[in-house]
Write a structure and sequence with these properties.
Length: 87
């Protein structure tokens, strides 16, 4: 069932419906923690949030410390947070 929520999240993401995608990914990881889904969650949250992408990218890295994609999302999210604080 968690995979179905992940697939629905991808549909919403592709439509640019980032908050809806995030809701689907959250349901997916509630059923089964998965580093890839946490990374997707962080990536869509990046579009509308500053703190949550950092939390979820870090969670992905806890599950798989070698996951480069999560490292990239984390770095971008931290850069965005820093930029927002400067304004």
């Amino acid at each position: 069932m968690y995979q179905a929520w992940g697939e629905l999240g991808l549909v919403h993401r592709n439509l640019g419906q980032f908050e809806e995608a995030a809701a689907c990914y959250k349901r997916s990881v509630a059923l089964e923690e998965d580093f890839s889904t946490y990374t997707l969650l962080a990536a869509v949250e990046y579009e509308f949030d500053v703190e949550q992408p950092i939390i979820h990218a870090e969670k992905a890295l806890q599950l798989n410390p070698d996951w480069d994609e999560a490292e990239t999302v984390l770095a971008e999210a931290k850069k965005k947070r820093s930029s927002n604080r400067d304004h």
